[in-house]
Write a structure and sequence with these properties.
single chain, 82 residues, alpha+beta
């Protein structure tokens, strides 16, 4: 369930034209399950969907931890975005 919530939450943020994701957002959508969050982010980074800028588990809530490069497992609904 956490995987779907994290993926859908991040994709919804991209819908709002935001590419940088904070630790707080990752924590909320990932249900603070850091082993699962770390695994999912690592998988998605290896597939080119995002870039991990810092470890969200050890960052402050407002710190930007992830930069999105593309939607996760779906096509962008907007031309030329992200």
């Amino acid at each position: 369930m956490a995987r779907i919530a994290l993926k859908n939450g991040i994709n919804a943020i991209l819908d709002d034209y935001c590419k940088r994701i904070s630790r707080q957002t990752i924590r909320v959508y990932g249900d603070a399950n850091w082993p699962s969050i770390r695994a999912m982010l690592g998988e998605w980074e290896s597939k080119g969907y995002l870039r991990i800028l810092r470890d969200p588990e050890t960052a402050n809530d407002a710190d930007i931890c992830v930069e999105m490069l593309n939607y996760i497992e779906q096509k962008s609904p907007w031309p030329n975005w992200p």
